């Protein structure tokens, strides 16, 4: 038996008494765990095996495939998300990015820290769209997909004006160097995104930067993972970007 911190990503159906969960842990990354009798054990697992629960876990089994969850102690439950549509959608978006961007059994403790910080922020403050864009950029950077935004991938010279972002090459080119379709990015958007990656204070994003970042970053994540982001479609359907912030 071994211990680790983790956040529940999804709860899945498994029989009448057992509980199956997807969890992102600090020691082993993303994995699936089964809690035997978890649906009936009020003492061990009541209200703990649900998305957004940050737990101290005891796991048992081989470090591949399905493991057994023997105990879960609550570190934090982000309860304020549940009463606010924007917060819960942002929270589920973050969980889905962890789900689609990380392989099973590939530890990234910094990703867990990033996720917990983001959920803590959502729990305590009113989020804006640029906070979500920052989370996307940091996830890309932590997982080895950091977009290259400083120099043109064609000629190697600094990009000081607007650019064209190539999804396939993972970076920006001068418009004259772009030999393929890409996503045009203004000078201001490039400046803001670079600032985020360098840890500078660049928020809030103006509307034109939000619009361009909203087109670019989810598209880049989809390209890198080969997966659609289902929560993004829900956000678009309910018009979440039309609300204030």
**Secondary structural class:** alpha+beta
Question: What is the annotated CATH architecture of the largest domain?
Answer: Up-down Bundle
Give the strand line-up of the largest sheet. 1-2-3-5-4
> Which parts are unreliable, with pLDDT below 50 for 5 consecutive residues or more?
none
Proportion in β-strands = 15-25%
From the alpha-carbon coordinates, what is the Rg to the nearest angstrom? 20 Å
- Taken from the alpha-carbon principal axes, the silhouette is elongated
Mean pLDDT: 93
* Total domains: 2
Name given to the CATH homologous superfamily of the largest domain: Recombination protein O, C-terminal domain
Query: Got a strand count?
Result: 8
State the share of residues found in helices, binned by percent.
25-40%
Quick structural summary:
This protein is an alpha+beta fold and 245 residues long. The protein has seven helices and eight strands.
Describe it for me?
The protein has 7 helices and 8 strands, in the order βββαββαααβββααα. With 245 residues, it is an alpha+beta fold. A hairpin with a 3-residue loop joins strand 2 and strand 3 (29-35). It has helices spanning 42-45, 85-101, 109-124, 129-142, 187-197, 207-225, 230-238, and strands spanning 2-13, 19-25, 29-35, 53-60, 66-77, 163-166, 171-173, 183-185. It is elongated, with a radius of gyration of 20 Å. The mean pLDDT is 93. It folds into 2 domains: 2-78, OB fold (Dihydrolipoamide Acetyltransferase, E2P), CATH 2.40.50; 128-242, Recombination protein O, C-terminal domain (de novo design (two linked rop proteins)), CATH 1.20.1440.120. The longest helix has 19 residues, at 207-225. The termini are far apart.
């Amino acid at each position: 038996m071994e211990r680790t911190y983790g956040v529940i990503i999804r709860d899945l159906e498994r029989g009448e008494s057992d509980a199956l969960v997807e969890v992102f842990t600090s020691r082993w990354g993303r994995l699936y765990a089964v809690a035997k009798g978890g649906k009936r054990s009020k003492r061990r697992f009541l209200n703990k095996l649900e998305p957004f629960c940050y737990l101290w876990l005891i796991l048992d089994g081989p470090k591949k495939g399905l493991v057994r969850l023997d105990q879960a102690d609550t570190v934090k439950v982000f309860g304020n998300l549940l009463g606010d549509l924007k917060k819960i959608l942002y929270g589920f978006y973050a969980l889905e990015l962890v789900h689609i961007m990380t392989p099973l059994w590939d530890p990234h403790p910094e990703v867990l820290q990033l996720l917990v910080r983001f959920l803590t922020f959502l729990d305590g403050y009113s989020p804006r769209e640029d906070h979500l864009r920052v989370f996307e950029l940091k996830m890309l950077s932590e997982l080895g997909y950091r977009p290259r935004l400083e120099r043109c991938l064609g000629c190697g010279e600094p990009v000081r004006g607007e650019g064209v972002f190539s999804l396939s090459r993972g970076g920006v080119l001068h418009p004259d160097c772009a030999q393929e379709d890409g996503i045009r990015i203004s000078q201001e958007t490039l400046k803001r995104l670079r600032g985020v990656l360098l840890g500078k204070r660049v928020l809030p994003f103006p509307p034109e930067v939000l619009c361009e970042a909203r087109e670019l970053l989810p598209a880049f994540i989809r390209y890198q993972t080969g997966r659609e982001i289902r929560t993004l479609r829900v956000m678009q359907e309910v018009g979440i970007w039309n609300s204030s912030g």
